[in-house]
Amino acid sequence: MSEHEETGIEEPPTCESPEPMSCYLHHDPDHPMSSFSVINKMRVNIQLCDVSLRVGDSVTKAHRLVLASSSPYFYAMFNDDMAEKLQSEVELHDVDLGALQLLIEYSYTGQVHITDENVQVLLPASSLLQINSVRDACCTFLMKQLHPTNCLGIRQFAETHSCNELRTRSHRYALQNFEEVVKTEEFLFLSYSEVEDLVSNDKLNVVSEEQVFVAVMDWIKHNPSERSQYIAQLLGHVRLAQMSKMFLLNVVETEPLVRSEPSCKDLLLGAMKYHLLPDQRSDFASKQTEQRSPDGLMPYIFAIGGGSLFTIHSAGECYNPRHDRWLPIAPMSKCRSRAGIVSLGKLIYAIGGYDGIVDLSSAECYDPNCNKWSAVTSLGTKRSCLGISANHGLLYVCGGFDGASCLSSVERYDPLTGVWSSCPSMTTRRRYCRVSVVDNCLYALGGFDSTNYQSTVERYDPRMSKWMTVPAMSSRRSSCAVATLDDMLYCVGGNDGTMCMSSGERLNVRRNAWEPIATMQCRRATHDMVELDGGLLVLGGNDSNSSLHSTERYDPRINRWTMSTPMPTRRSSVGAALLYCFNMDGKLTAAAAAGGSAILSGGVAMVTAGSGTASVTSSPYKSTATSV
């Protein structure tokens, strides 16, 4: 035992050489800020300042090094062979004093307050001094301030100062909010080229071309002595063919400025021919007959009507494929099963159908902008189980059932006139037939003629006003689903008289021959199908045992069906349509919150078997039984 152990005293550590340290980095993250804070105080107290900036009679002192570090403009001034390099005082031109002082302070602090009052001088000053971070911040500020009353002024301001992104955003805003923009004084003071830039744009967002015509005339009449010379050029950008015939006759044709210009008369005549010769509309196809396509439109799928067991729906649902979500829409004025549902222009049409008691001739249309249904002219004949399609602004309904017999007759509706007219009848009576358009021709497929389930197909060319037989499908199909994709006519499911089917085929129009495609995951009849994102979406129907709410998507690249998000409601004899809309999610969510269960549930007709009567209830009935 050592002496230290005996006394309880610890032995001192042995002395060893310290480990060598190659480097020790000390980092103070606050150093740049604290240093610049001191330098800024020196500027405020005019300490060690080495340059004076003169604007008019005012002089502001600063440090060359700080200015050069934040502004390429000052960097070049103080480093290149410029006269100002050695001058203690530099005079600046074309810059606002207040803006200069803000930018100098920004060079020291990295902060600047942008307001409505200073942005119009701060942006050009930051652009001149090449302080791009402030310039971009000013543009961002102005983008957030865009409003129908100022967007045109901001667009012009952006053009003046070469702010391309701001110019693009403000121009897009003006196009998107054209209806409100044309009511402002800014619009009336635009130049001809600026007005033309708006009304000629395919992205112009308008409810109707009537709005564009009125805006053009308001602009011209604000200074007719100088602007009347532009009437023909501007009217050439107004899509007259898409106006109603009554507006053309009562407003456009009677306008003195239009009547006084021969070239305007020619434009009006062309629009009238489009109205008066509906069978030849494909020959008139041009930008004048195309619908504008504003930015921000998104595809939505609408599933409308149909039923399950003894239930017939008036309600519909809307699917957003981007958010993978279904939302309820406002109910129709009538419960409709076996109706014709189609989108045309900016509306969805529900034609005919069966309400649980009788077959219907009534029709209505849905406007997604206001989530409302409105009545339109009734059919000439009651029809359920009809085929329906749209072509060149016209709506065609084919065949169906009138409550007594299967039909071969065809009717055509023109929304511009609100009139139904008769077309040549099909060669075969077809109940539960389906119709689609390929290359401006209507194809009517399958159906039931009161005796036989059909595999036959016929084509109608409006230019020839004649139906012609084309190759039949490989299978008999009634109540199938049909859609056009990449100039191919797809037909899936249906009933062949013995069972519901899952098989599908497509007509290769170029080869004039049918080709098989993959079978669906489920057997379906009385379903519907729409084109979506380069593929197909099938909705609802029944499988002989129950009404379906399931959906399937078809990818033609891999020839495969996959199950998709189901509808909230089971729907057989359903109608579906694709329509491009603005923010339907927000509108429908707000409508549901405001309307409560009335909109969420919609209306259904409860049909008592054998009673021949129907009552309306607000409670949706979801059943797994066969559809009506």
Written overview of the protein:
One of its GO terms (biological process) is protein ubiquitination. It holds the Pfam family BTB. InterPro entries: BACK, BTB/POZ_dom, Kelch-typ_b-propeller, Kelch_1, SKP1/BTB/POZ_sf. Keywords: Actin-binding, Kelch repeat, Repeat. By secondary structure, this protein is of the alpha+beta class. It folds into 3 domains: 115 residues, Potassium Channel Kv1.1, Chain A (2-Layer Sandwich); 100 residues, Serine Threonine Protein Phosphatase 5, Tetratricopeptide repeat; 320 residues, Kelch-type beta propeller (Neuraminidase, 6 Propeller), CATH 2.120.10.80. The chain has 20 helices and 31 strands. The strands form 8 sheets. It has a 4-stranded antiparallel β-sheet. A 4-stranded antiparallel β-sheet has the order 5-6-30-31, with no helix packed on it. β9 and β10 form a beta hairpin. The C terminus is likely disordered.
Radius of gyration equals 36 Å
Structural class: alpha+beta
| Widest sheet, order of strands | 8-7-4-29
Classify the beta-strand content into a percent band.
25-35%
State mean pLDDT (0 to 100 scale): 90
State the domain count: 3
CATH T-level topology of the largest domain: Neuraminidase
Q: Tell me the major beta sheet.
A: 4 strands, antiparallel
**Gap from first CA to last CA:** 106 Å
CATH architecture of the largest domain: 6 Propeller
pLDDT < 50 stretches: 597-628
Shape: extended
